[in-house]
Amino acid sequence: MSITAGSYTFGPDSGRIFIHTTRTGLGAKAGHDLTIEVTRWHGDATIDAASPAGSSVTVEVDAGSLEVRTGTGGVKPLTDSDREEIGRIIREKILHTDRHPTITFRSSRVDGTAESFHIEGDLTIAGTSRLVTVQGLVADDRVRGSAVIVQSRWGIRPYSALFGALKLSDEVEVRLDVGLAVKG
After folding, report:
1. What is the pLDDT of residues 49-76, one digit of tens each?
2. Considering the chain, what percentage of its residues have pLDDT values greater than 70?
3. Cα atoms found within 13 Å of the Cα of residue 140, Cβ hemisphere only
4. Which one, of 61, 39, 43, lies nearest residue 136 by Cα?
5. Is 76 exposed, middle or buried (0-12, 13-18, 19+ CB in 10 A)?
6. CA–CA dist 33, 77 (Å, integer)
């Protein structure tokens, strides 16, 4: 499938963004690998199918809208109370959403084909911008992509507990799966 040139919008009604975390450290067995969903976000894309370099993408995320969906591993199952506590920690201690309510991505370079494309751009998290690359493809009328985010590059100290014995890995993976709607 090829993408038709034009301007598109996307968001939670047409797709999903997930963040996947893993645990490390001596106490890793006590923690959970998490799947966190971004529930409030929107994006715009301008596609130039003949010349991908003329394409652009922007995405804006409500940083307070991250919700823990699943937790695998761990000594005991993740409870609703655990999910709420993790959400609070993300908002208050990791992303500081009171001071930085949005996370943004703005492309600076697009190349490749529908079968395999790369989008480079500035990702701003908690007031710090760094270059990130999204790898993606178009399949079954959907755009799918992923990027690995190294939290410490944005000044984020990965969460730890049990005096550092249980830690989140510095790398988290962001995955997206969206359908594009033509801008009206």
Report:
1. 788 889 999 999 999 999 999 998 888 8
2. 92
3. 3
4. 43
5. exposed
6. 11
> Distance between CA 171 and CA 162 in Å, rounded?
20
Give the global pTM.
0.91
Q: Looking up tokens 């079954």, which residue turns up?
A: 140
Q: What is the DSSP string of 75-135?
A: SSPPPHHHHHHHHHHIIIIIS-TTT--EEEEEEEEEEEETTEEEEEEEEEETTEEEEEEEE
How many Å apart are CA 41 and CA 26, to the nearest integer? 36
CA distance 53 to 119: 10
The pLDDT of residue 81 is above 70: yes
Angle CA 63–29–160, to nearest 5: 40
Sign of CA dihedral 91, 12, 49, 145: positive
